[in-house]
Amino acid sequence: MQTNAYLAWEEPESAVLIDPGDEAHKLLPWIESTGVKPVAAVLTHAHFDHLGALNEVVAAYDLNVYLHPEALPVYQRAANSAARWGFKIPQPSTEPLHMLPEGELKLGPGFKVLHLPGHCPGHLGLYNAKAGVIFSGDVLFSGGVGRWDIPSANREVLAASIRKLFELPLETVVHPGHGPATTLQNELQNNIYVQSWLTSS
Question: Structure pTM?
Fold first, then answer.
């Protein structure tokens, strides 16, 4: 599914792993090659393509797992959801989870946690003002936005999340769940969904 996984840190001994999507046999050597130690896995949302390698990375690094409380039902049926799309992943076995509502996450480099539903219940964005970056999951992509034609998605709610996202500085760099990085400024200028939803009520 070509999902992006990210490592974010200020101190190498306390990194945060964001969205360990799949292919643990590639993901674990990549983490090792960075020389940092992850202490937590944070899920921007609980769609199966963002957590397929979760069991393996949790076992390898004894990670705590964080997600929004509204994402828990999606998390609990991840393997079944994958099967409906013709994919096979192990059902995440990590319990108990740490519920991460909107607010502050004082792990890794530290994040302002934004609740950005619409593509998936309990979807989060992770914003670091010091670095000027946000990990947007599947809310915003270069040239696109998250799908709203899938179960539990909602176009109007997603549009509201896009408007909330654009309250951040336009120079903010966006690291999405799929595809290349972009900026809010670039999406404002070139993304037809953003342009439409920012001018509608």
Answer: 0.93
